[in-house]
UniProtKB/TrEMBL annotation:
Protein name as catalogued: Hemolysin-type calcium-binding region
Organism of provenance: Microcystis aeruginosa PCC 9717
SUPFAM superfamilies according to UniProt: beta-Roll
C-alpha cells in the first residue's frame, strides 16, 4: 500500500501512522515527458518513507519544489526520489523532521550519471538523525546542490552532500548548522575518493564534543577538498579543515577554522596525512583556553606537502603548531604565521620535533602576554634538521623565546632569525636553549629587547663539544639586562661567533661570548658597546679555565661609570685572551685589558672622566711572561685624572721613557724585567706619585 500524488500536480499528502510509503508524483520512474509537481508530504508516525517525486528520475527530468515533514522516529525523507540518473535534476526541496533516528536526503538515495542535486533545506530536531544534503551515494560525475542543513539536538550527523563521493563527483557549496552535543558535521561526505571535488562549505555548531569536517572524514586517491569555513562555540570539539584522514594524492585547500571555547582541537587539513598528500594554506582562530591548533596535521613525513598557514589564539594555555606535532623524512615546513594573545601559551613555528633532514619554514610568531614559550621551528631538532629564517615578536613578561628550538643535537642547524622583545624578565635564545653534541654551529641571528631584566643569548644557553656560535647581533634598551654573544657556558671545543652587542641603559651586563669558557673552547672576535651607567662589559666571559682562548674584542663604554674587561674577570693559568681594544667613554670607568695578559697586546682608552687602568690585582701582575711581546697600551692616560693599578710594591717597577712614551717594567725577580704597559704620549711620570696605585 502506498499513498500517491498525481504527476505534474501540486499534491498535498498527509498520513498519520507507521510504515507507509508516500510518493508526491509516481510510484515508479519519472521520465520525459512527465513533469513533477510541487508537492507537500506530511506524516506523523514511525518507519515511514516520503519521496518528493517517485522511485527514480531519469533523462533530464527535474524534480519539483517539494515540502516533506515528518514527526516521529525512524522515518526516511527523500526530497526527490530513491535514484537519480542520466542528467536528472533535483528540485529545491524542504525537509523537516522531529524525532529520533530519522533519515533526510535532500534529493535521493543514489545519484549517478551526471545527476545534479537541487538547492535543498533540511532541518531535524531530536537525536541520532542523519541529514544528507543530496543523497546517500554520489558517483559518475554527479553534482551536489547548494544545500542548507540544520539540526537541533545531540548525536546527529549532517553531510552537506552525501555519504560517499567518487569518480569525478563534485560537492555543492553547502551550509551546515548544528546545536547540541556529540554531533558530526561533514561539509561534503563521509568518504571522498577517485577524483571527487568538495564544495565551498560553511559549517557552524554550538555545543560540546562535536566533530566538524570541512569536506569528509576521509579523502583519498585524487580527491580534493575545497575552501571551507568551520565555526564552533563550545568545548572539546574537533575541527578538521578538510578531513580526519587524507591518503594517496589527496589535496587540502585553504580553509578557515574558528573556535570559541576550551579544549578544542583544530587541524588545518587533517588529523592524519599519508603518502603524497598536500595541505592547503589555512586560517585557524581560537578564543579560549587549553586549545590545540595544527596548521596542517599531527605527523608529517614522506612526501607530504605542508601549507602556509595562519594560527591565531586569544586566551591562555593554548598550543599552536604551524605544521604538525612531528616532522621527519626530509619534509618541508610551511611559511606559517602564529599569533597569540594571553598568558601561558605555546607556539611552535613548525612542529614539536624535527628530524631526518626536515627543513623548517620561514615563520612569523607573535605573542602579547606573559609566561609563554615561542619556538621559531620546533621544541627539538636533530638528525640534520634545519630551521628556517624566522621572525619572532613578543610583548610581555617572563616569556621564553627561541629562534629555532629548545634543543639541537645530531647536526641540527638553525636559521637566521630575528627576535624582538618588549617587556621584562624574558629569556631570548637566537637558536636554542641547548646546542648539544653533533651540532655544527649556531646561525646568524638578530636579538632586540626593550625593557628590564631580560636575558639575551646569541645562540644558546649551553654550547659544548665542537659547536661554533653564529655571528649574532644583540641589542637591548633598558636596565639590568644581560646579553650573551653566544651562551651562558662554552665548553669542550666550542667556539664563540663574532658577535655585536649593544646595550642602552644602566646596570646592564654584556658577555661577548659567555659567563664561562672551559676546556679548549674559545671566544669570538666581538664588538660590545654600552650607553648608560654602571654597566659591566666582558669581551669574552667572567671566567676562563683550562686552556680556553679569548677573541680579539672591541669594548666601548658609555656616559656613566662602566667596568670593561677585555677577556674575563678570572682566568686560570693555561688560558689566554685576545688582543682587545677597550674604550671607556665618558664617566669614571674601570678598564681591565686582561687579568693574565700573557701573549696579549691590548689597547686601553679611558676617555673623559677619572678612569682606572688595571694592570694587576692583589695577587699577580698582568702581561707577564713574554717580556716585550705582551703589554697594555694606554692611549690617553691623564696623570691629573686617571689611575693605573699595579700589583705589589713600588720597588718591583721601573718607568722608562722611550720617545714620547713611558714604558712600565715589572720585576718579578731582581734580574727579571718584563714590559707590562706603555703609556702613549706621556713622559716625566713618577712611580711614587698617587696616579700609580699598588695593591697586594
Amino acid at each position: 500500500m502506498a499513498i500517491l500524488g498525481q504527476p505534474g500536480v501540486n499534491d498535498n499528502l498527509k498520513y498519520l501512522g507507521d510504515s507507509e510509503l508516500l510518493y508526491g508524483d509516481i510510484n515508479g520512474i519519472l521520465e520525459p515527458p512527465m513533469l513533477a509537481g510541487d508537492d507537500t508530504l506530511a506524516v506523523e508516525g514511525n518507519y515511514n518513507a516520503l519521496y518528493g517525486e517517485g522511485n527514480a528520475m531519469i533523462e533530464f527530468t527535474q524534480g519539483g519544489k517539494d515540502y516533506l515533514r515528518a514527526t516521529g522516529d525512524s522515518n526516511a525523507l527523500f526530497g526527490d526520489a530513491s535514484q537519480m540518473f542520466d542528467n536528472s535534476l533535483g528540485g529545491d526541496d524542504t525537509l523537516l523532521a522531529r524525532g529520533r533516528q530519522n533519515f533526510l536526503r535532500g534529493d535521493a538515495n543514489e545519484m549517478l550519471d551526471n545527476a545534479q542535486g537541487g538547492n535543498d533545506i533540511l532541518y531535524a530536531e531530536g537525536q541520532n538523525n542523519i541529514l544528507m544534503g543530496d543523497s546517500q551515494q554520489m558517483s559518475s560525475q554527479s553534482r551536489g546542490g547548494n544545500d542548507a542543513l540544520n539540526s537541533l539536538g545531540n548525536v546527529n550527523r549532517l553531510y552537506g552532500d552525501t555519504y560517499q563521493m567518487d569518480l569525478g563527483t563534485e560537492g555543492g557549496d553547502d551550509t551546515l548548522v548544528g546545536k547540541g552535543d556529540s554531533n558530526s558535521l561533514f561539509g561534503d561526505a563521509n568518504q571522498m575518493y577517485g577524483s571527487a571535488q568538495g564544495g565551498q562549505d560553511t559549517l557552524t555548531i554550538k555545543g560540546n564534543i562535536n566533530g566538524v569536517y570541512g569536506d569528509a572524514e576521509s579523502i583519498t586517491g585524487l580527491a580534493q577538498g575545497d575552501q571551507d569555513v568551520l565555526r564552533v562555540e563550545g568545548d572539546l570539539n574537533n575541527l578538521y579543515g578538510d578531513a580526519k584522514s587524507m591518503t594517496e594524492m589527496a589535496r587540502g585547500r585553504g580553509d578557515r577554522l574558528v573556535a570559541r571555547g576550551n579544549n578544542n582541537f583544530l587541524y588545518g587539513d587533517a588529523r592524519e596525512m599519508f603518502d603524497s598528500t598536500k595541505s592547503g594554506s589555512d586560517i585557524l582562530e581560537v578564543t579560549g583556553s587549553y586549545n590545540l591548533l595544527y596548521g596542517d596535521t599531527t605527523s608529517i613525513y614522506g612526501s607530504i606537502q605542508t601549507g602556509n598557514d595562519s594560527l591565531t589564539s586569544t586566551g591562555s594555555f593554548n598550543s599552536s603548531y604551524g605544521d604538525g606535532e612531528t616532522m621527519s623524512d626530509n619534509t618541508l615546513g610551511g611559511d606559517d604565521t602564529l599569533i597569540a594573545t594571553g598568558d601561558y601559551n605555546f607556539l611552535y613555528g613548525d612542529t614539536s620535533e624535527m628530524f631526518d633532514g626536515v627543513q623548517g619554514g620561514n615563520n612569523v610568531l607573535s605573542v602579547e602576554g606573559n609566561n609563554s614559550f615561542l619556538y621559531g621551528n620546533a621544541l627539538f631538532m636533530h638528525d640534520s634538521a634545519k630551521g628556517g629564517n624566522d621572525a619572532l615578536t613578543l610583548k610581555g613578561n617572563n616569556n621564553t623565546v627561541s629562534g629555532d628550538a629548545a634543543s639541537f643535537y645530531d647536526s641540527a642547524l638553525g636559521g637566521n632569525d630575528t627576535l624582538t622583545v618588549q617587556g621584562d624578565f624574558n629569556l631570548v635564545y637566537g637558536d636554542a636553549g641547548h646546542l648539544r653534541e653533533g651540532v655544527i654551529s649556531g646561525s646568524n641571528d638578530s636579538l632586540t629587547a626593550k625593557g628590564n631584566g631580560n636575558f639575551l643569548y646569541g645562540d644558546a644557553f649551553q654550547m659544548g663539544y665542537a659547536v661554533s656560535g653564529g655571528d649574532d647581533t644583540l641589542t637591548s634598551k633598558g636596565n639590568d639586562n644581560v646579553l650573551y654573544g653566544d651562551g651562558q657556558n662554552l665548553y669542550v671545543t666550542a667556539r664563540g661567533g663574532n658577535d655585536i652587542l649593544t646595550a642602552k641603559g644602566n646596570s646592564n651586563i654584556l658577555y661577548g661570548d659567555a659567563i664561562g669558557i672551559y676546556g679548549t673552547a674559545s671566544g669570538g672576535d666581538d664588538t660590545l658597546t654600552v650607553e648608560g651607567d654602571s654597566n659591566f662589559v666582558y669581551g669574552d666571559a667572567v671566567a676562563m679555565s683550562e686552556i680556553a682562548r679569548g677573541g680579539n674584542d672591541i669594548l666601548t663604554g658609555g656616559l656613566g661609570n662602566d667596568h670593561l674587561f677585555g677577556d674575563a674577570k678570572s682566568m686560570s693559568s693555561g688560558t689566554r685572551g685576545g688582543d682587545d681594544l677597550l674604550i671607556g667613554g665618558d664617566g669614571n670607568d674601570t678598564l681591565v685589558g686582561s687579568v693574565r695578559g700573557t701573549g696579549e697586546l691590548d689597547t686601553l682608552e679611558g676617555g673623559a672622566g677619572r678612569d682606572l687602568f688595571v694592570l694587576g690585582d692583589g695577587t699577580v701582575a698582568f702581561y707577564v711572561g713574554k717580556r716585550e711581546a705582551d703589554y697594555a697600551l694606554n692611549t690617553d692616560f691623564s696623570p691629573s685624572d686617571d689611575i693605573i693599578q699595579l700589583f705589589g710594591e713600588v720597588s718591583q717597577y721601573s718607568l722608562v721613557t722611550v720617545g714620547s712614551d713611558t714604558y712600565i717594567n715589572y720585576y718579578e725577580q731582581s734580574n727579571s724585567k718584563d714590559l707590562i704597559g706603555i703609556i702613549q704620549g706621556v713622559t716625566n711620570l713618577d712611580i711614587n706619585q698617587s696616579y700609580f696605585q699598588f695593591v697586594a
